[in-house]
Amino acid sequence: MTTEPVIHSLSIPPFDVNTYLVVCPETKEAAVIDPAGQPERILALAEEVGARVVMILDTHGHADHVQANAALRQICGAPVYMHADDDRFFSDPQTRAIVERELGLPGAPPADRLLADGDILKLGSLAIEVLHTPGHTPGSVCFRVGGNLFTGDTLFVGDVGRCDLTGGSLDRLLESLAAKIIDLPPETVVWPGHDYGETPTSTIGRERVENPYITDFLLDP
Fold it and tell me: If exposure means fewest CB atoms within 10 Å of the residue's CB, which of 5, 42, 114, 219 is most exposed?
């Protein structure tokens, strides 16, 4: 039987990014997904629930999702994981300067460990599967943990992430949804990078029925 994580979330300004604390219920080891800022709030939450942060997972390299990377790494000694394509893309000085102007935030330092599609990360008794879902950025990923999918800015409730920023491509995002997302079990819970929908979370089954980017672009005959 698959162990299910304990999930806690924080909405962190200035872009109201959903930062998730994913905890193994057996070992209390925790991963922080998209530490958007306010590291003291993230660490206070971990302390409150008795968890120990051992890894930092970035769904993509946009600055609004990674502002607490360096502080958490320094305090906890936890490595930062990012897909190799985004680590390379956002490390390029020219690209970095453009993206910093687009978002008005400083970029993140390079990751400690590079992810690839299909990687399995161990968090206590939990297995975290890496799904490479380019489109919002070249190295966007979703993290699948048991019956949960942390989608970053690839998939929102009733919407998808914007593709007009540097490195974005709607065609690639739709390909990613078709290849990696929409055929997951319908009960899979979607935990998005921003709370832009009618509800904070959704399911794959619901998105197949209600998300126009899926119904109109992918499922419409």
Answer: 219
CA distance 198 to 184: 22
- E-strand ranges in the chain read 6-12, 17-23, 29-33, 52-57, 80-83, 113-115, 120-123, 126-132, 141-145, 148-152, 155-156, 159-160, 189-192, 202-203
In this predicted structure, what is the pLDDT of residue 116? 98
Domain 6-219: assigned CATH number: 3.60.15.10
Residue closest to 2 by CA, chosen among 188, 210, 201:
188
The confidence score (pLDDT) of residue 67 equals 96
Residue entry with tokens 């453009």: 98
Which residues participate in catalysis according to the annotation? 60, 62, 64-65, 136, 153, 194
Give the Å distances, CA to CA, from 150 to 27, 95, 99, 211: 21, 26, 23, 17
Helix (H, G, I), strand (E, B) or coil at 157: coil
